[in-house]
Amino acid sequence: MSGIRYGGDYNPEQWPEEVWAEDVALMRRAGVTTVTVGVFSWARLEPRPGERDFGWLDRVLDLLHAGGIEVFLATPTASPPPWLGHRFPETLPVDFDGHRLAYGSRNQFCPSSPVYREHALALVADLARRYADHPALALWHVGNELGQVCHCDVTAAHFRQWLRARHGTLEELNDAWHTAFWSQRYGAWDEVIPPRRAPYLINPGQRLDFARFCSDALVESFRAERDVLRRFTPDVPVTTNFMGLQRTVDGWALAGEEDVVSHDWYPDPDDPESHVLSALGFDLMRSLKRGPWLLMEQAASAVNWRRRNPPKPAGQLRAQSVQAVARGADAVCFFQWRASRGGAEKFHSGMVPHAGPDSRVFREVEALGADLAALAPVAGAPVVAEVAVVLDWENWWAVELDAHPSGDLDLLDRVRDCYRPLFELGVTPDFVPASADLSAYRLVVVPNLYLVRDPEPLRSFVAGGGTLVVGFFSGVVDERDQVFPGGYPGPLRELLGLRVEEVVPLRPDEAPVCSSEALGEFTAGFWREDLVVEGAEVVAALDDGTPVVLRHRHGAGAAWYMATRPAADAAVRLFGRLLADAGATPVPRPPRGVEVVRRGEVLFLVNHGAGEVSLDVPGAHVDLLTGGAVSGSVTLGRFGVAALVPQSG
Amino acid sequence: MSGIRYGGDYNPEQWPEEVWAEDVALMRRAGVTTVTVGVFSWARLEPRPGERDFGWLDRVLDLLHAGGIEVFLATPTASPPPWLGHRFPETLPVDFDGHRLAYGSRNQFCPSSPVYREHALALVADLARRYADHPALALWHVGNELGQVCHCDVTAAHFRQWLRARHGTLEELNDAWHTAFWSQRYGAWDEVIPPRRAPYLINPGQRLDFARFCSDALVESFRAERDVLRRFTPDVPVTTNFMGLQRTVDGWALAGEEDVVSHDWYPDPDDPESHVLSALGFDLMRSLKRGPWLLMEQAASAVNWRRRNPPKPAGQLRAQSVQAVARGADAVCFFQWRASRGGAEKFHSGMVPHAGPDSRVFREVEALGADLAALAPVAGAPVVAEVAVVLDWENWWAVELDAHPSGDLDLLDRVRDCYRPLFELGVTPDFVPASADLSAYRLVVVPNLYLVRDPEPLRSFVAGGGTLVVGFFSGVVDERDQVFPGGYPGPLRELLGLRVEEVVPLRPDEAPVCSSEALGEFTAGFWREDLVVEGAEVVAALDDGTPVVLRHRHGAGAAWYMATRPAADAAVRLFGRLLADAGATPVPRPPRGVEVVRRGEVLFLVNHGAGEVSLDVPGAHVDLLTGGAVSGSVTLGRFGVAALVPQSG
Amino acid sequence: MSGIRYGGDYNPEQWPEEVWAEDVALMRRAGVTTVTVGVFSWARLEPRPGERDFGWLDRVLDLLHAGGIEVFLATPTASPPPWLGHRFPETLPVDFDGHRLAYGSRNQFCPSSPVYREHALALVADLARRYADHPALALWHVGNELGQVCHCDVTAAHFRQWLRARHGTLEELNDAWHTAFWSQRYGAWDEVIPPRRAPYLINPGQRLDFARFCSDALVESFRAERDVLRRFTPDVPVTTNFMGLQRTVDGWALAGEEDVVSHDWYPDPDDPESHVLSALGFDLMRSLKRGPWLLMEQAASAVNWRRRNPPKPAGQLRAQSVQAVARGADAVCFFQWRASRGGAEKFHSGMVPHAGPDSRVFREVEALGADLAALAPVAGAPVVAEVAVVLDWENWWAVELDAHPSGDLDLLDRVRDCYRPLFELGVTPDFVPASADLSAYRLVVVPNLYLVRDPEPLRSFVAGGGTLVVGFFSGVVDERDQVFPGGYPGPLRELLGLRVEEVVPLRPDEAPVCSSEALGEFTAGFWREDLVVEGAEVVAALDDGTPVVLRHRHGAGAAWYMATRPAADAAVRLFGRLLADAGATPVPRPPRGVEVVRRGEVLFLVNHGAGEVSLDVPGAHVDLLTGGAVSGSVTLGRFGVAALVPQSG
């Protein structure tokens, strides 16, 4: 297959077989190329332990193939059938409070359960064996939105095994967890348990290691299924769909085991800024394996799980879909093809809504099929970035532990505070892990790095001429969540040319004024720090002289520090300065609400704002979506999009 | 007994016997006719398993009878003694999270427990045997405010038995619950359990059936006790007291098993609109068995279970009591006769307050006794209605399930939004179930009917010339909570002359303007829908043309649809139009805050507002309460009441 | 040792031994006299059941002693090691919901567990045996912030034993708990359990007795350890550190078992009124044993357990420390000496912060050492009060039970409402229990006494010429939480010259205007009552005549009643009147935000406000802190302090 794949989750077991033919006909009408089948089919495929019922699936795959539609075939392991929980209650997850959760929903399994794994892998093997050579099979889709966490005794044993591998000896574990405090020293391995409801604050080392373990256990689950699949189909790529920007699984680790990254994404139609968070998420997905990715799920209109679930306004679906392609998606898929009649997600919209094909939603779905076909030339093309943003899962887990200076420090907020000004300046960054080689970039942004495992990549990047900016409350702890001797920013002190005596989370109503020759006067918020300057130059300071933005030359480059959160407009000015300081290629600033991204040779324009806007586009272009010529400027209405290819000649 | 009964719960076991004589003397002084005895007496009657201690109760009943006071004798089954829970922990209820609840409060039983039932029925039988012929016995009062729900394994077995009876086969159950989604297919009956805490959303079919089961199990409990009582006293009527407007038990089903309906009602003294909700509840109680009902519990002044519990202002008790009589009550009773000295409800006011009889409260209680005696002529008289409001418990359970377009859609709010304009227009409606024969009414109001079992009663009502109005988000699912094929409003589509493509829950700050020739300009809120008109006429629409109120001629009648919630004043105008359209008998609109209800030949006026009002009352009347003549007009101060009988001649 | 002790919790087991020497050197630099060692050392001292490892502690104590620093040696019983919970799960506490809490935090023990106690006392004995004669040992510090509550079955058995001792027979218990209501009568002792999650409100008698039991069980735990310690070191005083103003343990009872009172106190740097609550707490601590007390823990700067944890502003630590000394503290100590590198409290500040000794915090710590040395003359001196405030734990527990007229009636709020005007008038009161002999005082303030065990002390105080003021909702119940016959204020009715018919909790937006010749016009809030005057004179009344402040001559004195909460300024006027009525010695009213307290012959002035203030100080003084002469007036900047001794001659 070439071009941009288009389709959605297809759950034919919800419908009588007579509907299936109509489905395929409608899919063809809409330009659907690909559907995901079998995500929740375990109970149908294995109605009783050990039984197999593949006949219906054979017919579905044959029918789809006959209709020219390829299949992403799912392993149905995200939702075990009731019989598994009923016969083997130890496979059911236990929450932090000690409640064993019931079946009747989905995801009710303990990722550490050998009983669960054994049943899951046996079915996966039979599935792979049966469909290995089916001509419709294009990709394996393992499980669904991996993220289960369990606190049971089986998990405890698994956790101890993981801890032995990480720490070697109990003495090392006691040191790492700082169990000398509060009399928590473990005298024997079998005393060690997951975090569970306790009288007061729980050991943060234990919580951080449990977060690592939970992520590793899920990656291990994925790997186990992938390895079974590879035995049967070494050439069919394997993915599992990420659930948005989720904290539970280390994205770098999981992507490292996948052949291609896929992503489920549900922006809130009520959030006028949702396109910024979408862009952030899409850039992250593209970065996880440095290449094209699959938008595996989005909604055609409303979802069902927010408190209030309005539909998407007309045109938004198209704008959001093109946005994904612009930022590297080679597939635009939906949950789900046909809206369910029953069950917990019946009010989650489908490509075919309850109202049927004679509806605004289906008409938009059809039009989108045509649009994506027109975008075929962009498939596989790269997005090239000069700026990188560091996102590190261990730091995410650590910085959001409790009993910190502020319970409101949310890592994603910090990332967003740095991403938004880049977006507004028309700059598309990559994301990188904290351990990445950064030499390909001009500017590296570290929104926060509370936990520092190794400062060397940052140091050598700056020494080699790069520009680095680091956000507040960084360099605080090592990988054991233990404060660096000598205080913050620990191993970044020399690089940043400063040290921090005390951190000051501000009240929501505190907005101190900062003055700065370089940035103009602005207000700060959320945070400030009592700093001692050790070589850095003060770029901005509070009225009382407390520095809030600093810059330190180091080697051939410069390291900036933001000890506060500047107001939104000042953040744009600051990032403008950073880009200039880094020598980044200048790009024109797009009008507010308009997204400008270059993928391959195509320049994508998307208007997420409410009103009509005009943009200068020097030179002659053709709009892939309309086939029309564009010369000098483009006018876009609400949710208007353009995909411009330079006209040769 | 004739006239309006007057009294309250009498719990003499809380007091030394020397107080009992004073009680009877004070009751006589207050005009008390009736007391409810024994509601919480299980532990006193059966201090140890199988023992019986009836002596004290013999003395109480004899004393009351000697004082001319009749007795509503309660079965004490709402509150088992500690020994039951201690010896038989399986009788204790288990909550959704799996916590087994303790004794030390009340209501701690599993309605499905055979052990509980066996002990309860044995005591009920002995009670009935002993007092069958006691001359004070006027009525049996079974349990108290039935509403217990349990999620234990005994309940699970009972639930499965109920499900087998409902669905026949497991395949039917799988279909009904749409278990094809999320791999929830049951392979054996013993896998099926009540809804319990699970990782994510729980199957709505399971939840809806569990709601039905819980209601049925409580009705079954009631029936079991009633049948025992009838064996001994076939002629003594049996009731159980409803707890306000409560969702848990299907009112129509429970009332169907009772001989007379009774009701506990505690309006909030802080809510200036509480009389509207009271009127709604009273009309519902009258409708449940289409006749007089008993106000079994109200408070003489403050209650104890709200966050803040102010006393009732002077005069309010009288106004509220007369309101109940006006809307069909043949008894006005209280919880409880004498405020407790100890225990969890000691700050719940009593007819005899902590301050004793020399108090405002007791003086109002005395005066109320005289008022009710004066209202004797109204006892047994009917309230005749031309308007019916549909209230259906299955729909109530279904429409409030989670994962819906809006988590704020509360059925009672929707009913209140329709009831309030009727109240303000001086119209007293009946309530009816969705399956009722509606031919006796001119206007039928369906605030919401998300779940439609059978549209036929509505269809034939309109076809026969009736006027129907249906609120938004109706006609969505069948009785299995499965969306009707072809979309909303499903089986009401032809009747209403429209179909709905998408529903749009609005933000709290959205108040779109609607224009309408018939109703004037108004603002809408909470909801709107994307509609396709299929024959209906548009009565009101948003600025962009989206219809929000429609009217469709059908047969000899008309069916209206409200796709939004009009602002309060517009709702009054709309219901005025509906009444006119229906050809309802015109009644004058009372001043704001004043309630006007006709019961039998008596016209009741109650001023719930803060200021003095005057009303025109054409013709000559006598006020039953004062005995005075009224001619032309009546002036009522705050909480003023009048009960006017036309003067013959 | 003489003078004011200075130091903090020292947890050397968190640090390598090479840090210990640096610690002692820094302590000496800062003027530290005393450290608390071993609070959380159980797992280090007994790494496996029955083992002992005292070597490290020997070295620590020797090192400290060599450095001239004395030791408060802690029993490490607040935080059992993981092995105790792992091997003996029955020692882990169970919460109200039935969850057994895990280790991994601290405080995870059931105070009633014999297994816990046996292990704890064995270690305490070995500790006492080993260090009985160590020259550094100055005081025993038992456990930490006693407050654990458990609902397990072991607790249930202990509770029953306590109940038998209190009530004698089951019949007495049934009477006391008023179990006649709601069928809660117990037929056998083994049916009785602690309050646990139940379907509805729990018996208040059971809850009140459980509160008493929990307090007694903790006092019993303390006593058990104390008795072991006394066996080995009859002359070393024993304390345990109170956790702020905490409800769980009866302060009078626990203090009665201690040799000296100690206190942990963490004012919120964000609360501009925190100094008033601090003063209240400090006066209470001084009162508990009528003498000097130890400030055992405070923070050098930020804490870690609030949602937002800003550091203390420069100078505040000094002001707060001097405030404690002014109100009777003979020690100023911290949690903890050196901020932890790891663990749950690493962001709780230390005397040596993460930033190390070259920091503002450590410089303030050093300066404070010098200040406290200068205040040595005040050590041991008394604070003399003419005013007493009644604080009674049983009343605290009872008045905050649920299902009351207002769920917002918080006893500490009531106490604060009375304390604040005294503070603003420059008056320093004592606290007393409700049973105290009051003859030494001129004015006795009873903010609330819902539960009255014995009115005699109040009666005889007034009869003997004293002035009493009692707050609303007093005299309601007896010690069984049963309402006094005849209504409120029960046994205080004659003394106060009034009775209460109904209590009226006001809405937050209700602020009725009161007029009063004596106090001027003012607004009231929170509460009012419908009163019948029986001899009292009305000092202030609402517009409708309802009395809100009354005064009743009784014997040689006067008893006032406050039926509402006057606005803050009116409360100051009212307390001014009360002081005048009582003939209290007049003191000048200090400027707002300034605290004036006399301890011994020293007059302490502390400016907690934001701006500079000047105070008249008639006569000639020397400021102990500066050694300088003060004559006529003193000027204090923000957080400025003075400790003035009259200059003789």
Automatic annotation (TrEMBL), chains A, B, C:
Record domain Beta-galactosidase C-terminal: where: 593-642
Catalytic activity: Hydrolysis of terminal non-reducing beta-D-galactose residues in beta-D-galactosides
Domain Glycoside hydrolase family 42 N-terminal: 9-374
Recorded GO MF terms: beta-galactosidase activity
Key words, A-Z: Glycosidase, Hydrolase
Documented EC number(s): 3.2.1.23
The keyword Hydrolase is annotated on this UniProt entry: yes
Domain Beta-galactosidase trimerisation: 385-582
Coiled coil: none
Top EC category: hydrolase
Assigned protein family: Belongs to the glycosyl hydrolase 42 family.
Entry protein name: Beta-galactosidase
Organism for this UniProt entry: Saccharothrix lopnurensis
